[in-house]
Amino acid sequence: MNRLLENLSPSRLIRRFKEKDESYTIKFQMPGLSKDDVKITVEDGMLFIRGEHKDEEEGSDDDEFWSAATYGYYNTSLMLPEDAKVEEIKAEMKDGVLHVVIPKDETKKKQIKEVHVG
């Protein structure tokens, strides 16, 4: 789990990260982006999340012509935990919030052994 959190400071993760027995869940605020604006990839144990949104608008009032453009870009990456099931990672965009669920691989669970002190 610590590897998952290495790239994010605790203040940025408040109420955005949740660990359960079967998975990790992370929420990302991405206002103005739709699911079509977001691309998620996994490469060499890293999860990359990129989003880009361009909006151009033109119009005219009376004898005046106007145009407006907005642009938004989102780019972050996380090191995945060792017990992540990479092939089963899922994501959903809802109301400007990206929900990423990273299932845990039970076969890669850490073995903890108590050592007797003599």
UniProtKB/TrEMBL annotation:
Alphabetized UniProt keyword annotations: Stress response
SUPFAM superfamilies on file: HSP20-like chaperones
Ranges of residues in domain SHSP: 3-118
Gene Ontology molecular function: any one: unfolded protein binding
A Pfam family assignment: HSP20
CDD domains: ACD_sHsps-like (cd06464)
InterPro entries: A-crystallin/Hsp20_dom (IPR002068), HSP20-like_chaperone (IPR008978), HSP21-like (IPR044587)
Stored Gene3D superfamilies: 2.60.40.790
Entry keyword Cell inner membrane: no
GO-annotated biological processes: protein complex oligomerization; protein folding; response to heat; response to hydrogen peroxide; response to salt stress
Similarity annotation: Belongs to the small heat shock protein (HSP20) family.
Protein name: Putative HSP20-like chaperone
Source species: Helianthus annuus
